[in-house]
UniProtKB/TrEMBL annotation:
This is asparaginase. It catalyses: L-asparagine + H2O = L-aspartate + NH4(+). Belongs to the asparaginase 1 family. Keywords: Hydrolase. One of its GO terms (biological process) is L-asparagine catabolic process. Residues 225-333 form the Asparaginase/glutaminase C-terminal domain. Residues 8-206 form the L-asparaginase N-terminal domain. GO terms for molecular function: asparaginase activity. It comes from the Eukaryota.
Length: 336
């Protein structure tokens, strides 16, 4: 099944496994060693079937492994997508190829900063295009289909791998090598990009995103620095103290269970607050909420609800571009 003819999709390449060329068809692990990568134009040429669904316009933004994607790259990519959407009101959507290690972070940043209802489909691969059984071509093809599909509009930034469409807010990478690595926990995925040519949805994200977002990065050249402090049995305040001394703008605590951590760790967070550093309490257990308990509220902490620590960090970075008021930052955590 083909969608409306001549629907335009802008395809932005950033690198990652989906672009790397290994030494052989059996190279599933060392493919980044040589640093040889396909360009987005070369990747698109491998999937001529994408033209059945849209006029695809490729653009190379960066071409790096996902461990080398930094916040300035997020800004560049978000601005570029916003510029293209503004210049081409008839475009159907955008797709982004990305390394999987930081894919969920880039996707969530776009979920908060692309100011448009049109879809942004972010994809990657767990096996490079040079490997036997690669998922690179199928995932690229599916991302274009999802970006071109009218029913994808208004659902925020989407993550598309393994024939599944996931919300950028909820999804996380859960396995180091398996192709079904991206999962959305209790929330579940949104729908399928299936072999019959259909893009089929079953739910819609409820939290604010994209066109309803209050975050405008068009004039921002640098994001506030927010770091994550990891809680564990016996954790002290050493890392937290070092972050504050180094001038961090905000801290997300990846706490135990429901957000709490050892008293020595929490004492460090209190000192950070006293130094004027906003602190968000999250949890590293994978699913579930951190709620506004009496203790957390009395001690002035911001809670992340069910955002993973990496996602809470991104939201806090954007929130700090507008305010340091903990009441306002808490509102943002609960609305996005």
């Amino acid at each position: 099944m083909a969608y409306e003819p001549n629907r335009r999709v802008y395809l932005f390449g950033t690198g990652g496994t989906i672009s790397f060329v290994g030494e052989s068809r059996m190279d599933f692990f060392n493919y980044s060693y040589r640093g040889q990568q396909l360009t987005i134009h070369e990747m698109l040429a491998r999937v001529p079937e994408a033209s059945e669904f849209a006029e695809v316009i490729p653009e190379q933004v960066i071409n790096v492994g996902s461990t080398e994607v930094y916040p300035p790259h997020w800004l560049t990519l978000a601005k570029r997508i916003n510029e293209q959407f503004s210049a081409d009101p008839d475009a159907a959507g955008a797709a982004v190829t990305h390394g999987t290690a930081t894919l969920e972070e880039t996707a969530y940043f776009l979920n908060l900063t692309v100011r448009d209802r049109r879809p942004v489909a972010v994809t990657g691969a767990m096996r490079p295009p040079s490997a036997m059984g690669t998922d690179a071509d199928n995932n690229l093809f599916d991302a274009v289909r999802v970006a071109a599909a009218p029913q994808s509009a208004g659902r925020g930034a989407l993550v598309v791998l393994n024939n599944e469409v996931q919300s950028a807010r909820d999804v996380t990478k859960t396995d180091s090598y398996r192709v079904e690595t991206f999962q959305s926990g209790h929330m579940g995925f949104l729908g399928y990009a299936d072999a019959d040519g259909q893009v089929t949805y079953y739910r819609r994200p409820e939290r604010r995103h994209t066109a309803d977002s209050e975050f405008d990065v068009s004039s921002i050249d640098e994001l506030p620095r927010v770091d994550i402090a990891y809680g564990y049995a016996g954790a002290g305040s050493t890392v937290i103290d070092a972050l504050v001394a180094d001038g961090v703008d905000g801290i997300v605590a990846a706490g135990l269970g429901s957000g709490g951590s050892p008293s020595t760790f929490m004492a460090g967070l209190k000192q950070a607050q006293a130094a004027g550093v906003p602190v968000v309490l999250s949890t590293h257990v994978g699913t579930g909420r951190v709620v506004q308990t009496r203790r957390f509220t009395e001690e002035g902490y911001i809670v992340a609800d069910n955002l993973h620590p990496k996602k809470a960090r991104i939201l806090l970075m954007l929130g700090l571009t507008q305010t340091k008021d903990p009441v306002e930052l808490q509102r943002m955590m609960l609305e996005y």
